[in-house]
Amino acid sequence: MVYAIVRAGGRQEKVSVGDFVTLNRVPGGAGSTIELPAVLLVDGEKITSDAKDLAKIKVKAEILEDLRGPKIVIQKFKNKTGYKKRQGHRQALTKVKVTSIA
């Protein structure tokens, strides 16, 4: 089984061909292709972690759609001062499908 650990959106994700991955928003529209930098490659019993060898590895993914994450509510409160603040946030995300690891 071939899989790779790639750096995407400040995190590392384990991907193999055909996987669907949700990343932080990446530039490009639906149908375009992006390339993700590999941190580790596992091909059966062979494990590649050398930076020179990983520079040759291309992990390509196709952008499927842009979406928004779940609503996160941020509440701040300080006792006895009358201070309270409520704020919401929805992260901008992109759903991609890994097409090749070569």
From TrEMBL:
Belongs to the bacterial ribosomal protein bL21 family. Part of the 50S ribosomal subunit. Contacts protein L20. It holds the Pfam family Ribosomal_L21p. GO terms for molecular function: rRNA binding; structural constituent of ribosome. This protein binds to 23S rRNA in the presence of protein L20. One of its GO terms (biological process) is translation. PROSITE patterns: RIBOSOMAL_L21. Keywords: Ribonucleoprotein, Ribosomal protein, RNA-binding, rRNA-binding. The gene is rplU. This is Large ribosomal subunit protein bL21. GO terms for cellular component: cytoplasm; ribonucleoprotein complex; ribosome.
